[in-house]
Amino acid sequence: MKAVALTHYLPIENPSAFLDVDLPRPTPDGHDLLVSVKAISVNPVDTKIRAPKDIIEKTPRVLGWDASGIVEAVGPDVSLFKPGDAVYYAGDITRSGSNAEFQLIDERIVGAKPKSLGFAEAAALPLTTLTAYEALFDRLRIDRDGADKGQSILIIGAGGGVGSIGIQLAKAADLVVIATASRPETESWVRELGADHVVNHRKPMVEQVRALGFQHMDHIAIFNDMRHWETAVELIRPQGGIVSIDDTDLPMPMDGMKMKAASLHWEFMFARAMHQTPDMIEQHNLLNYVADEIDAGHIRTTLDTVFSPINAENIRAAHALIETGKAKGKIVVEGW
Q1: pTM, entire model
Q2: What pLDDT digit, counting tens, does each position of 33-44 carry?
Q3: How far apart are CA 179 and CA 166, in angstroms?
Q4: Where is the Enoyl reductase (ER) domain (predicted)?
């Protein structure tokens, strides 16, 4: 089968950062689906894993943790899907990735592709949707059905992939959303997605938020990096919650959190699959829930840019765009 892989961890400008290779087609076992991959999307996690380091892979390594496609075959323990089903999923960081014609994936972390979306539009969603959903509803314990109507949330890094779906999920839960954006195009993007207010995260945010009439935020989601930690601590209400997706080495003073009895939560959407948690099927359930919301017109895809076909040149281009830090929404590579 065709695949895009790496053997050396190189700067993305290096033509050998990714290679077009031919690999054996895998065979499903247990709960695995064999998926014929139609489109993939590229996320910051891909660029972090590919980042230059002194490691050489003995066999080509396939990255990629977002895909949509068609079930080609199933393992003996599969009960949720059958060959011919259209699916979308984010995958398992401990296994071979989605930048290949065929991929093995556990059915319990796979959802039925939204019927109203094409493969490229669907591939844009799984990883960021799982991350945003778990951050808001599993970690911060916001009620997704509106019981917390009127509460406020500050989404820092709202123009990226996770923030783009996070805005929509927060609005669907009837929250008041303050989104951050630093460029006119990302400000327009987050407003289009439903943000009630926009502040610039490259300028002091405390003053901007309070100028809008909010002394504190009920919830804060940090969807870029932890350089905004002290701002978040200042803005969170007493007994409020902050969730972050960043694995940071920056200092994180905790005095302010303690004095407010505020809580800090970490979100890592690969945790369920990585640790084979008893509730890993919840990712199947929530992807199906979001697919239904999309088909009902309540949530839209966050796709912004499409490259085609899936090959080393276009995977390099997608990584390069993410590494500029100026991408909005999601970047997808489609078709073989």
Answers
A1: 0.93
A2: 999 999 999 999
A3: 10
A4: 12-333
